[in-house]
Amino acid sequence: MRRLIVGNWKMNGLRGAEKEITRLGELLTPDDRKRADVVVCPPATLLGCLVEEAAAAGIELGGQNCHIRPSGAHTGEVSAEMLADAGAKWCIVGHSERRQDHGERSALVRAKAEAALRAGLTPIICVGEKPEDHEAGRAEAVVGSQIEVAMPNIGISGGRFVTAYEPIWAVGTGVVPRPSHIEAIHARIRKTVGPDTPILYGGSVKGKNAGGILSIPNVDGALIGGASLKAEDFHEIISARWTDHG
Ligand SMILES: O=C(CO)COP(=O)(O)O
């Protein structure tokens, strides 16, 4: 089965980043393209600059966040319509850095996912437990309730969405959960989202561990931070060998 590999550049990238996209396009082999769909989510300021290079490289673009309204008096915000207008096809919502830094809760994340759907974008809904929840053995319960609340109304624009499990203690730390942990949480998410919604894993995915992670049952792709910034590193992940779990 094809995997979905998404790069989240976070607050990184200035003009000139086009060359990373072009380089990635050069690195992707026909076999890579057969095995994976590739999406890059740069800062909103770069979307317009990267559109041509991304199209030439066969890569889709996404936003990293959106407002719940299409337009209006919301200083400093970017709407899903604006992201779509700038060339995005996807939008990350509910990333743990937004939940932590901006107090976003799952009900707001759901409203953002629905706004993305109304704008014709595919939302990538992030969930994941804090270190203290993990240590207390509450990961499954916490993630289960996050996804139950954040899941959009299926009736909106066909309702296609993607989920991403990113345990906060694994984001940017170099620590990766045991495969059995990832498997258990993905199985819990699957129960809520059903068989057709891709579930990505995110948190310290690198070229070296990507094949193993992408071989875990119910891991349909990966959401990558640091290792998506350089085309070579990102390509190492996309070209990793995984085994299908049917
Ligand atoms: O937050 C992430 C992707 O959204 C994961 O970040 P890292 O890959 O840098 O751990």
Automatic annotation (TrEMBL):
Pfam families: TIM
PROSITE patterns, per the entry: TIM_1, TIM_2
CDD domains: TIM
PANTHER family (alphabetical): TRIOSEPHOSPHATE ISOMERASE (PTHR21139)
Annotated protein name in UniProt: Triosephosphate isomerase
Name of the gene: tpiA
Family: Belongs to the triosephosphate isomerase family.
Enzyme class: isomerase
Compartments in which it is found: Cytoplasm
Main function: Involved in the gluconeogenesis. Catalyzes stereospecifically the conversion of dihydroxyacetone phosphate (DHAP) to D-glyceraldehyde-3-phosphate (G3P).
Residue positions binding substrate: N8, W9, K10, G172, S204, G225, G226
Pathway annotation from the record: Carbohydrate biosynthesis; gluconeogenesis; Carbohydrate degradation; glycolysis; D-glyceraldehyde 3-phosphate from glycerone phosphate: step 1/1; Carbohydrate metabolism; erythritol degradation
GO molecular function: triose-phosphate isomerase activity
InterPro entries for this protein: Aldolase_TIM, TIM_sf, TrioseP_Isoase_bac/euk, Triosephosphate_isomerase, Triosephosphate_isomerase_AS
Superkingdom of the organism of origin: Bacteria
Subunit structure: Homodimer.
A cellular component term, taken from the record's GO annotations: cytosol
Catalysed conversion reaction: L-erythrulose 1-phosphate = D-erythrulose 4-phosphate; D-glyceraldehyde 3-phosphate = dihydroxyacetone phosphate
Active site: H95, E166
Taxonomic source organism: Parvularcula dongshanensis
BP-aspect Gene Ontology terms: gluconeogenesis; glyceraldehyde-3-phosphate biosynthetic process; glycerol catabolic process; glycolytic process
EC number: 5.3.1.1
Keyword terms, alphabetized: Cytoplasm, Gluconeogenesis, Glycolysis, Isomerase
